[in-house]
Amino acid sequence: MKSLFLVTLCCCWTSLVCAKSIYEAIENNPKLSKFYDLTKNDELVQVLLKKRRVTVFVPSNEAFSRARQFAPEDEERLASYHIVSMVVTRDLFPDSIYAVSQENPPLYFSVKEQPGNGEKEYFVNNAKLLEDRDYNVDDGKQKLYIIDEVLEPYRSTENLPPDAWELLSNPSLYNIREELSAMASRVRKEEQVDTFTKVGNHTYFIPIGEENGPTGSRIRDVDSNVIKGHVISIMFSSLEQQGTKVTFPTTLVLKLSLSIRVIHLTVKQFS
Predict the structure, then answer these.
(1) Rounded to two decimals, what is the model's pTM?
(2) What is the pLDDT of residues 6-48, one digit of tens each?
(3) What is the pLDDT of residue 60?
(4) Residue 134 exposed, middle or buried by CB count within 10 Å (0-12, 13-18, 19+)
(5) Alpha-helical segments (H) within 122-238
(6) Which of 45, 64, 110, 207 has the fewest CB neighbours in a 10 Å radius?
(7) Measured between alpha carbons, how far is 30 from 9 in angstroms, rounded to an integer?
């Protein structure tokens, strides 16, 4: 058994090291087979991975096993949401860059520094970078990062990306499966819609609960000050980044045991 495990590990390592392109690396690595399967029916993605200067964030098979089930129309563009048309190195973190599928929001890059030893961990959205490899193709360099979560694109129903209020009031249109109607109702009644449409970088902490259900009863007394306490004016892209200091806009302490959905996005003004 130990010999078999060693052979498998060596094969995976060799496929990453000896490959001539990102496409070849994932094609021959059984631990990345689920992402490779996504590229089989997308000729543009295949060209990018074989010949172009790109960075690709490839979720491991284990990451896919933890991900939700994607609708067919979302799965078709899932691979392209993991590709950036430039070489992204760690010295560019933190930052945000659009993927090649620009109908989606940017990919957000962040860094967490471990207290004590100062070691740094790097994230794209909520996914942690596990390892990386460089390749050279005719168009220039390629960068492959293996990550521990699948990056989830949303499906916009309009020409422009939605703001936080659109996501909160119509979550099912964007494949958000949690029930958010209780918080949406309180935002309307407290006339705080502007808080969720304002321009800039913000993170919204949304309590999960149904307006007329038992889970929503805990949110029915939430007022405007409590609503504002769920919004911070920075991009806090991962709950795993526990070393990040966050200053909340109010001094309220919520003693509610609620499930939380984190929505992070940039809202821009368009003339």
Answers:
(1) 0.64
(2) 444 444 445 555 678 999 999 989 999 999 999 988 899 999 9
(3) 94
(4) exposed
(5) 164-169, 181-189, 224-228
(6) 64
(7) 10
